[in-house]
Design brief:
By secondary structure, the chain is mainly alpha-helical. The chain has one domain. Helix content is 60%, strand content 0%. It contains six helices and no strands. Helix 2 runs antiparallel to helix 3.
Length: 121
Amino acid sequence: MTQITTQHLAQLMIGVARSQLAVVDSVENMKAGFKFTHVRPTLETASRIRSNHPETLADFPSRLLLQMLGRNPPDMERVAHELDALISGLSTIPPRDTPPPPRDTLIAGPGPAATDSLDMT
């Protein structure tokens, strides 16, 4: 029996996402607005994209279909990399523990003169 690699699994996941997208597109052709009014919010809920939970393999198919709905579908290498990370237990999202930049740098901009200037041209 052959061993299934993450490359094989990524190809399979992309194929399934493409077939799901074809179904969504066919319904979109019959009823305009269906994709972004009904499908996208439901997929965002299923993928737990807005929750603070770490990514899991169970969330990955919904996230992949969400990416397929966008203008630039994910490539096979990226999907394989994300699968490798999820299977190994690593998160593909950078940690949120990094402190935000100091407030002065957000307001001031490029130099100290920017805080004193009100010129908006």
